[in-house]
Structures are given as structure tokens and as C-alpha cells.
Predict the 3D structure of the following.
Amino acid sequence: MALYVYAITGKDHPLRLDGLTGVGSHPTPVRTVTAGPLSAVVSEISEEIRPKRRDLQTHREVLDKLMSDAAILPLQFGYFASDDQTVQQALEADVDRYLATLARLDGCAEYHVRVSQTDEDELLRQVLHDSPEARELNERIRAGEQDPQLPLALGELVAREVQGRQDSLAAGLVQALIPYAREHTTHPPSSPDFLNLSLLVAHDRTEDFLAAQASLARQIEGGVDFRLTGPLPPYSFVD
Amino acid sequence: MTMVPQSGGSVSRSGGTGGSSLYDVLELILDRGLVIDVFVRISVVGIELIKIDARIVVASVDTYLRFAEACNRLDLEAGRKEPAQLPEVVGDMMEGGARGKSKGALSGAVDAVSESLTGRSSKREEPEEEEEAEEEAAPRKRRPARRPARRERE
């Protein structure tokens, strides 16, 4: 028996989970362990938890339900403790820090933005259109010139151009969106994404934020995909 | 909850767990969030490849040749859309009066192209119910990515 831990909350969190049960193949009720002003949201597990889709989804559902009532500090997926006492000790060891973080995140949600290049050909056409040098290299190769340096030169030029345009677009999007956020963070994107941005948006700015990002998304073309996920628990802002 | 209209810019917005894929939140669930050292973490070996492209990929000969090849087979007459530029948009946003210069909307051709380019279905392939949640078979590296990690607080 062990306790899988989902999140830390204030002790007065109503914990309205609509009967949601926890992770594992024999799910048990989600409950709390309280220590002073804090609670940890847990459920009992009787087996080794693996990172399977079902359990990832459950973890996420518990957090999404919790966040709608009050601020929470979501844990990374996959943490468990041996018993209630261990959990209480962990809460007591860092009480001030957790309370401060809950206060900092109060009234906010995370929105996560990914931008990727879905139509690479379109981007390449733009690059060739705008760069006489690239055009010339391309035409010479197409005309049958065998010099192996030509494709290398063309490729390097194009790579630089693609990078520059994507960096520029990413920077522009960040600048346009961060005025709506209390905090933001970027992470290295994974190809084919070229922007991985998280924003901490207060509830009273949400409508303006969503209108702004919708407006931006409408104006971005050139084969670029803009994906917004949210509102989310503040995964990216808990430390 | 404000509804975000679908647009030519291919916006997808997903709220909570409703219909949204696990894909975009997988990194958040696994890599972000609180870490409590005295607790034990289950093994997530195997899905740590979420960060497959996080390391800096130095522009390489392979990448250059791939771009050159892509240019070579381009149909340059296939119709150029407006470039994805942002300076005007940012300017408008700053003035608080973005009117939205709506360019012609794109068709669903974007999805078809993305499938062939990225080698994966636009329906994100999600892990099977009982299988390990793996990142999709490594998306082919499409471009050299030099991206510093930046964490910023206001």
C-alpha cells in the first residue's frame, strides 16, 4: 500500500471530484492528507504505477477538477509516499514555501502555446522568393550543375533563413501575448514546434487574452499551426 | 468560456480533459509540476524521450542537403500565400486595436501537407490504453534548432 500524490492545496479546498477515483488498475477514492494549513490530495495504490495512458489521463483529470475550485500546486506525474505520516511531514517541511506559491498562483490558470510549421513547402517558397541568392543556387542545381557544393550552400542558406523567420515569428508571438499574463516561461520546443510557451493568466484577463490569441492566430498564415491548450493547472509555475 | 473560432491559421484550442489529446500536455504532466524529493517517483524511463529535440541540434550537412532537396522538388508556381509575418500584428496589438487583416483563409490542405511532411497523422497518435505512453516514433528532425531555454518571470 502506498499513497499516490496528485497535488498540494490549501486545507479548505472543497475537493469536489464528482466521485473520481485514482490511478492504478484498482482505483480507489481520492482523498486528502492534512497538515496545518495545507492538504495533499492522494489516493491509495496497491501496485506499481506505470506511465500508461489511462493513469496519465486520470492524473490529469484529478488536477483539472481540483483547479476549478481553488489554487493547487500540481505534482509531476508519478510521485508516491509510503503513508499519511510521510505526506504530512513533507507538507510541514515546506509549509511557508507552499503557502506562498499557492498565494502567487491564486486566481490564475496556465495556458500553453505550441506553434509549428505544418507547411514547410510554403515557407521554402517564401525564402526562395525573397532571396535572389537562394533562387540562383536552386536554379543552377535544377539546370543540372553537378557541383556538390551547390546543394550545401543552398541548404545552409535556406536553413538559416527558416530559422530566422521562425525565431522572429516566435518572438513576436511571445511579445504580443505576455502583456496578458502575470508570468510566462518558454522551453526548448520539440520539432516540428518552434515555440513552446506557457502563460499564467489571471481569471479577470482571460477573456482579453483569448481574444488576443484568436486575433493573432487569424493573422498568422504561411503554413503555421498555432495550438493553444488551457485553462490548465499551473504545471509550469510551481517553483 | 470564450469560444475561439476556427480560422485559416489552424487554431486548435482545448480546455480540460474533455476532448483534448494527451499529446500537448504530456510534457507538462511529466516534466513540470512540483517535485517532492522525499517521495518516490515511478520510473518514467522510456517516455523521457519527450525531450528528444531539446538538445541543441547543430546545423548539419544532412539538414542542408534535405533543404536543398526540398527546394529542388518545390513547385514554385503552386501559389504563394501571404508570409507569416508579425511586425504589423504586434504593432496593432500594442495599440490595442487589432482589426485583423484577414487574409484569405487556408483550406484543409494544411492537414494533408502536414501529414506528408511530418510523417505522422494529424490525429495525434496517442498511446494505447494499456501500453506505455511513449512519445510518437521520433518525429523526423525537420530543421536545425538552436533554442536557448528561457524562463522568465514578470
Observations:
- Chain A touches chain B through 112 residues (CB under 8 Å).
- The two ends of chain A are 29 Å apart (CA to CA).
- The mean pLDDT of chain A is 94.
- The helical segments of chain A are 53-67, 84-93, 95-105, 120-130, 132-142, 149-177, 206-219.
